[in-house]
Amino acid sequence: MSAKDTKNSQPKEFPGQHPGEEVVLVFRQHPVVLRRQLIYGMLAILVGIGPLLIWPLSDIALYIMIGTPFLVLAYWFYYWIGWYYSVYIVTNRRLIDITQHGLFNRKVSEVGFEKVQSINYHIKGLQAALLKFGDINVQTYTGEWVLRSVMHPEEVHSQMMEVAHHITSTPPTN
Questions:
Q1: How many CB atoms lie within 10 A of CB 17?
Q2: If you write DSSP's letter for every residue of 4-15 in order, what string do you get?
Q3: Cα–Cα distance between 170 and 58 in angstroms, integer?
Q4: Could you tell me which of 47, 79, 85, 126 has the fewest CB atoms within 10 Å of its CB?
């Protein structure tokens, strides 16, 4: 699914939206960022089976084997929540970065496109090229923002450049 395909399905409003502000693009990190947690969870399930293989008649080994998948599901859910609710929102005026860590920790940062100096993207490595994800660097007057592991960074970059170009080419209204 490309960034253009998701454009019609993205929300048009969000909390904290300014009057007259329009949502141009909503995107998040590629699901590949969850691979480490997926691998650790699968390894934990395999380790949970180990005691039952060594002591097949032990009740404790049976409980460990049954309980481990539930703990792994809770572990995966914790990281999935963080991935799912962490989004980048591009409006016709600003870029908003909403980062969710677990259930109760959310960080929101924003920068106006009038403060953006340059926008670049970087696709590094074979895996990123095959799965079509990469980093977008947004250089502002106050520093650099790195939007990591974004799906289809070339399309997102193009749309962000269109918004930035429109902002800089439009004369300010009084």
A1: 16
A2: HHHHTTS-S--T
A3: 73
A4: 126
Task: Say whether pLDDT at 13 is over 90.
Answer: no
Q: Which positions ≥6 away from 84 have C-beta within 8 Å? A: 28, 100
**Structural tokens at position 66:** 């049954």
Question: How far apart, in whole angstroms, are the C-alpha atoms of residue 109 and residue 146?
Answer: 12
Question: What's the rounded Cα separation, in Å, for the pair 167 and 86?
Answer: 26
What is the pTM for the complete model shown? 0.81
User: How many CB atoms neighbour CB 12 within 10 A?
Assistant: 8
The tokens of 56 are what? 């097949």
Give the mean pLDDT of 12-36.
90
Chain segment 109-168, per-residue pLDDT in tens: 999 998 999 999 999 999 999 999 999 999 998 899 999 999 999 999 999 999 988 887
Q: Please, which residues bridge with residue 138 across strands?
A: 119, 145
- As a residue count, the chain comes to 174
CB contact at 8 A, 87 and 28: yes
How far from chain centre, in Å, is Cα 168?
28
Asked whether residue 10 carries a pLDDT value surpassing 70, the answer given is no
- Backbone region of residue 120 per phi and psi (left: phi > 0; alpha: psi in -120 to 50; beta: other values): beta
